[in-house]
Design brief:
This protein has 8 helices and 5 strands. The protein is an alpha+beta fold. Helix 5 runs antiparallel to helix 6 and helix 6 packs across helix 7. The chain is elongated, with a radius of gyration of 18 Å. The model has no long low-confidence stretch (mean pLDDT 91).
Length: 174
């Protein structure tokens, strides 16, 4: 059962960070008051350079969030802290800090044998996967909140070999 605060929060963080491909700065600002559960997103989240964005998530994360909120209603902070992710510090519940989120991400890496895994790895993996699966660089750039597709291509997408490029071209002519 997912009734352990660390287990379910870790799962939520993993799902939301991967689904949304948002930066850690946005993940630390996931306020319950900005949660639109019906549409699977947090709205009005301030990100890098003051950019206001949505943090989207899939149905698996939605189910986990629903379960976590139910658990919190009667236990933990009784939903008094306006944050999706919480920690107890000196006897008081508070929003999970950027450092705590980063530490949890490092823990994921340790579990799977990647010692330098960090929050940005989730972002990079998701954006690369979106591009690889769809071939749509603009779609990956939009998810990343990049103003230019070139930023996405240069920093987030694995370069294709010439044989991969040729294979894709040949597929159009079959």
């Amino acid at each position: 059962a997912l009734n352990d605060k660390f287990t379910i929060q870790d799962q939520i963080l993993f799902e939301v960070s991967f689904d949304s491909a948002n930066r850690i700065g946005a993940l630390e600002k996931l306020a319950l008051s900005k949660l639109d559960l019906e549409n699977n997103m947090f709205i009005g989240i301030r990100e890098k350079e003051g950019y206001i964005t949505e943090v989207v998530f899939g149905d698996a994360a939605k189910d986990l969030i629903n379960e976590w909120l139910e658990i919190r209603k009667d236990d933990y902070d009784k939903l008094e802290v306006d944050s999706l992710l919480i920690t107890k510090y000196k006897g008081h519940w508070r929003p999970m800090s950027r450092d705590s989120i980063g530490d949890r991400m490092k823990k994921y890496g340790q579990i799977v044998g990647i010692p330098d895994y960090r929050a940005h790895c989730q972002r990079k993996s998701r954006l690369n996967l979106v591009y690889e699966e769809t071939g749509d660089l603009a779609l990956a750039a939009e998810l990343a909140n990049h103003k230019s597709t070139e930023t996405t291509r240069a920093f987030y997408c694995k370069p294709k070999s010439k044989s991969e490029v040729m294979e894709k071209i040949n597929a159009f002519f079959r």
